[in-house]
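User: Hey, my collaborator sent me this sequence without any context and asked if I could get a structure. I don't really work with proteins. Can you help?
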Amino acid sequence: MEPYNLTVALEFLLLGLSEDPELQPILFVLFLLIYLLTALGNVLIILAISSDSHLHSPMYFFLYNLSLSDMGFSSTIIPKMLINMQTHNKSITYAACLTQVYFFVLFGCMDSLLLTVMAYDRWVAICRPLHYQVILNLSLCRRLILMLFFISFMNSQVHYLMVSQLKFCTIMEIPHFFCDIPELLKLACSDTSISNLFRFLLSIIFGFLPVSGIFYSYYKIISSIVRVPSLLGKYKAFSTCGSHLSVVCLFYGTGLSAYLSSTISSSTRENMLASVMYTMIVPMINPFIYSLRNRAMKNALQKFFS
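Assistant: No problem. I've predicted the 3D structure and written it out in structure-token form, which is a compact way to encode the shape of the chain:
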């Protein structure tokens, strides 16, 4: 089959989670609720941190940016899926597909890097408490966010260019609910060996390195907590990491599952279920983990509502 030149206006078909017409209204309501809860939870976190001066610290500054990134991550995928369900039109233009790839990688990478920096924040807070405000001053925090955004921008740019070089044949159906890069690589008629190599290398750089940073931070944290003489002191020290550790396990656990499903498993349904957890459930749960497990955040939300 001759590959198309995709500079012209061609379209992909997103087959979605199910082709059963009876399931479409149920799925629409379910994903609409997930999106509304994600937006509501993250907006409340942002407003609470902005309005309460007690939360103007490095940890909450990074949490503020994580909430912004989570909203962007969900908004890249769910609105288009809801529109397709409502209009019974599964098509997505080539340009829109590339845009979705770009922002999916941008916000996904930003989430990963933010969780790494937040692990470093907990390390400094527990192991160097007297120097916490000096080491993680506002100027450094702002520079860190700019650096993370630049790294995420470069990563998304590489993925965008990689996908834009692919040529596609007459089969334009993507067995997914968004433009997932592994599915696009499987669909391409052109040689994808270099693209797969780039994807593997980028996965190591932006997956393995942040996880290594988080593991190292928690190794130093645990080493410091073990030396605390009282049991209550150990509990108080480690309880400050509980929310972050829960989010890290959710994010990387579901992300690894989605990556392995797309790379190893031949089951499209398994891949899509892993992607639902990674792209929708995690951003929805994050605000509730931080608000329910954090007394300062609960107090800030109560003040905001009162």
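In plain terms: The CA atoms of residues 258 and 274 lie 5 Å apart. You can pass these tokens on to your collaborator as they are.
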